[in-house]
Amino acid sequence: MAAAPGQRGRGRVFRMTMASIPKNVHRVERFLMEMNAVLKIKDERFSTLLVVLTEAVNNAITHGNKRNPAKKVIVTCVRESDALVVTVKDEGNGFNPDAVPDPIHEDNLLRESGRGVFLMRQLMESVSYNKDGNEVTMKMKIL
Question: How many CA atoms lie within 13 A of 36 on its CB side?
Answer without folding.
Answer: 16
